[in-house]
Amino acid sequence: MCRLFGMSGGRERIRATFWLLEAPDSLAHQSRRDPDGTGLGYFDEDDQPVVLKQPLAAYEDQQFGQEAKEVRSRTFIAHVRYASGTPITVRNTHPFVLDGRLFAHNGVIGDVPALERELGPAMGMVGGETDSERYFALITREIARTNDVGEGIVSAARWIAEHLPVFALNCVLITDSELWALRYPDVHELHLLERAAGGSRGGRYLDHASARGSMRVRSGDLSSRPAVIVASEMLDEDAGWRPLGSGELVHVGPDLDVTVTRVIDRPPKRQLTLAQLDPKAAASQAGAK
């Protein structure tokens, strides 16, 4: 299953160090479970989006898997990909960039040709083959139409849920100062943590790692500053983690104000099951309920 991570540190930039597909002694084992690419996105000093991504499995490029990526930003997004059938290339590796926003998705959308027909001229924003990038293009089109990021995400997700076969639409989207995340439906988990300065015990720097060892992030700045984190799994022992419900949209503002709203209150009209996915797509969604 792909791994999603998003974080906001508020008004001021924070320094964070990311390891994607870490633990060199077991890279071959780990990367064969999540073998199809890793990506990190953030915003530079000029508030321009920056993406560092690699489509090769870590066992094919161990240096990439072992290198730490130290960056400064107000918001961050990271993704470990297990491809659902599209080629393993840079342009198919998350996160994606459109209109100054960064986006990553965990799930499968069926009937991609129908989604392309709905996009129409907006297909011009798409450079790769994934359903995820087409989902992002639809969101981007709807943001332009509604002039609101949250409404754009909701509008796109509702259209897909009504018209296309859906396995999962979990996603994280960031701008240079804000973060949004959607969990829908109740297939893959997505967790939220409003982390106090220094964590639950106070005075502790951030040091989060996924249970599968595929993603780790550390920030000494957060020993004295708060943050909000969204992730596919609870990454430490902090008691403040809470699972999002199906159809819940999270918005984290520039001042770390958090709003959670249930924006979709019914299952997809055509909910896909693992048994209905082709073998590659089903393998990519392993761990789903």
What this model shows, in words?
By secondary structure, the protein is of the alpha+beta class. Helices cover 19% and strands 31% of the residues. It is built from six helices and 19 strands. The strands form four sheets. It has a seven-stranded antiparallel sheet with strand order 4-3-6-1-15-12-16, with no helix packed on it. It has a six-stranded antiparallel sheet with strand order 7-8-10-11-17-18, covered by helices on one side. Strand 7 and strand 8 form a beta hairpin. Helix 3 packs parallel to helix 4 and helix 4 packs across helix 5.
Q: Helix-strand pattern, N to C?
A: EEHEEHEEEEHHHEEEEEEEEEEEH
Number of strands: 19
Mean pLDDT equals 87
Outline type = globular
Largest sheet: 7 strands, antiparallel
CA-based gyration radius:
18 Å
Neighbour order of strands in the largest sheet: 4-3-6-1-15-12-16
Beta-strand level of the residues, as a percent range? Answer: 25-35%
Q: Tell me the number of helical segments per DSSP (H or I, 4 or more residues long).
A: 6
Give a short synopsis of this structure.
This protein has 289 residues and is an alpha+beta fold. It has helices at 27-31, 62-66, 112-119, 131-146, 149-163, 279-284; strands spanning 3-8, 14-20, 38-43, 49-54, 69-73, 75-80, 96-98, 101-106, 165-166, 170-174, 179-183, 191-195, 206-209, 215-219, 227-231, 242-243, 248-252, 258-262, 270-271. A hairpin with a 2-residue loop joins strand 7 (96-98) and strand 8 (101-106).
